[in-house]
Amino acid sequence: MGVTAHDLIVKRGPFALNVAGFAGGPSGTAVLGPNGAGKTTLLLALQGLLPAGGAIERPARSAAVFARPAILRGSALWNIAVLVESVLGAGADEARERARQMLDKVGLSARRDADARTLSTGERQRLALARAVAIDPRALFLDEAFANVDADARPALRSFVAEYCAQASCDVVVATSSLADVFALCSEAVVLADGAVTYEGSSRDLQQASDPFVQALFAEGAVTGQAIR
Amino acid sequence: MVRTGSGGRSSAPTLGRAIELISIAALSVAVSGIATAIAGLVAIPAALWIVLGHSRLRGALFALFAAGLGLPPVAVGLAIAYAFWRSGPLGFFDLLYTPWAMGIAQTIIIVPLVGTLAVVALRGGDPTLPMQLRGLAIPRRDRLRLLAREVAPSLAAALLAGFGRAIAEVGAAQMTGGNIEGQTRVLTTATMLAVGKGEFAQAFTYVAVLLGIVAVATGAALALQRRWA
């Protein structure tokens, strides 16, 4: 079972999100849109973290990386190991070994014994990615998960996520404002504006979308010389 | 000339006096400790509700806590003394001039303090933490355990402040306990009596013990915080 939604309606104060249909997949679905369009709301609703109308399905074991990940008191290694023990029922040694592997994959080995609360914003995002993948999820929700990571480290982190999702058949839904995230992780894209879907289709055809936010993204990419596949 | 004790400056403390001092100190710790525990049982769940709940009454309760910070202990003492007076509305409980009446008064005095500090502490943490832990597929029991672990140091500080205020309180203790020797005499009321009789050495001894108890409680709370950190 993957991530799907039908007739999804979420109301948060005066804001309303309406999505007639959503289908995730291991090849990735990007959720794009300007600030306040409803990207985070859609991700939270798909995870069952917000009250929502309509029919939503998702795998029982799903994991999220928030734009500002909450970090627990303790070392970076412990932050991952405690989740592996809890979610996968692993023993302490096995959990620590998995935590070490995950920290290695996101380039945080040198900081594994550091108090996780002293990590920089980018390091926290790496830790959040590592702990999300560590619990071997079948659906992964990433909300601006690479935004604060060093630019030169982002390609490796995207590859880490893409390889995991392909190997584990894990659906991945990515809320982002980065075309690089879209093209590295997602074959499909959904564009939101004011809580409504303005584009839904292949990310390859995204440039054809008339949505002004998407056009602005491509224009910015062209100006900055960003390599777009 | 200042009198330093009923037996004069050179008199050695008798065994009887030492036993009396220990029993007074033990009663102080017991009454204030129980009052703090009960205040914690009332104020901490209320603080959690204020921070995590959705009811509109949360603001009203927090305002009540904040207003209660300025509640004069003597007013609480008066109310309890009146309520438990033999002809008062709760007189049939026959609790006036017992440690129970003192404990009830201390509990009422410190609930607003513990509640307010707990709310401030809980709000100082990451408000999205409970949701983020849900987003990582962690079973409910482990989520609660992890949340409790995160907030425990802050809540311990709130409880310590409550204990410190309870054990240092004198007006309500005098009115509701009556400072009866061997029954309701605690360190603060004993100090007041000693000063009234001009027995300053005795008064200083009581205050030294009081300060020692507060120091031990503070040390224990700090040690726990260091261990949890």
Describe the protein in words.
The complex is a heterodimer of chains A (229) and B (229). Chain A is an alpha/beta fold. Chain A contains seven helices and nine strands. The longest helix of chain A is centred in the C-terminal third of the chain and has 15 residues, at 154-168. The two termini of chain A are 30 Å apart. Chain B is mostly helical. Chain B has a single domain (15-228), classed as MetI-like (MetI-like fold, Orthogonal Bundle), CATH 1.10.3720.10. Chain B is built from nine helices and no strands. The model of chain B is unreliable at 1-10 (pLDDT under 50).
How many distinct beta strands of chain B?
A: 0
* Percent of residues in helices of chain B: over 70%
Uncertain runs of chain A are none
Oligomer: heterodimer
CATH topology of chain B, anyone?
MetI-like fold
Number of helices, where a helix is a run of at least 4 consecutive DSSP H or I residues of chain A: 7
Rg over C-alpha atoms of chain A, rounded to the nearest angstrom: 17 Å
How far apart, in Å, are the first and last alpha carbons of chain A? 30 Å
Q: If interface size is counted as residues with C-beta under 8 Å from the partner's C-beta, which chains form the largest one?
A: A-B, 23 and 18 residues
| Overall pLDDT metric of chain A | 92
Return the string of H and E elements of chain B: HHHHHHHHH
**Overall morphology of chain A:** globular
Structural class of chain A, by secondary structure, is alpha/beta
SS strand fraction of chain B: under 5%
CATH architectural label of chain B: Orthogonal Bundle
Q: From the alpha carbons, calculate the radius of gyration of chain B and give it in angstroms.
A: 21 Å
Estimate what percentage of residues of chain A fall within beta strands.
Answer: 15-25%
